[in-house]
Q: What sequence folds into this?
């Protein structure tokens, strides 16, 4: 069996939804969605019956949309990736953190109240490459006054696939959003939107 990592999933997507989509391009043997406190973390794993099916699924489904989100599909790097996940019960796996200076904090992605005010300086960037660095993300917004870069990572320092860019003021943030409407980094189509205010706390 070959395991695929699926990132930037809508929080409403279930293991059954993911299984149905991947079954259209190959034989699926298992699907799990990572969650914390009964909230999806926005990523999961799909096990395919063989390498050919996995490669075909990755080729056909990477950078496709589910409920308006551009998902990323890659080969899972380690069998440890799925430890603690389950397709039937909530888990506490991975415990991703924001790397911000010398501080770490859990991202609130997926548990934000929709009535929470939007940040005046921060944008949420999604579908980031796993090899992205803070410098590369900063350079993706040329001409903008970037105050801080936050890339969400797991406790093993693995990039999860999303992060935040904070600008010096709201005008600079608007410039960043305009750039983000047509932004590609390392052949990945990046999606950008205003961050919730709580993301910047």
A:
């Amino acid at each position: 069996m070959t395991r695929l990592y699926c990132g930037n999933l809508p929080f409403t997507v279930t293991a059954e939804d993911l299984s149905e989509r991947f079954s259209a391009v190959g034989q699926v043997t298992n699907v799990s969605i990572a969650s914390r406190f009964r909230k999806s973390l926005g990523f999961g794993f799909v096990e395919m019956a063989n390498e050919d099916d996995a490669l075909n699924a990755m080729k056909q489904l990477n950078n496709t949309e589910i409920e308006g989100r551009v998902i990323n599909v890659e080969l899972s790097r380690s069998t440890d990736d799925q430890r603690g996940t389950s397709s039937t019960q909530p888990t506490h796996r991975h415990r991703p953190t924001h790397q911000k200076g010398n501080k770490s904090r859990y991202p609130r992605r997926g548990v934000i109240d929709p009535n929470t005010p939007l940040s005046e300086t921060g944008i949420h960037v999604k579908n980031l490459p796993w090899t992205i660095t803070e410098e590369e993300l900063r350079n993706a917004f040329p001409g903008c006054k970037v105050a801080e870069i936050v890339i969400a990572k797991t406790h093993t320092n693995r990039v999860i696939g999303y992060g935040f860019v904070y600008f010096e003021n709201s005008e600079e943030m608007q410039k960043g959003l305009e750039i983000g409407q047509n932004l590609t980094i390392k052949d990945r189509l990046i999606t950008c939107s205003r961050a919730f205010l709580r993301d910047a706390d």
In short: The CA atoms of residues 33 and 154 lie 16 Å apart. The first helix runs from residue 15 to 23.
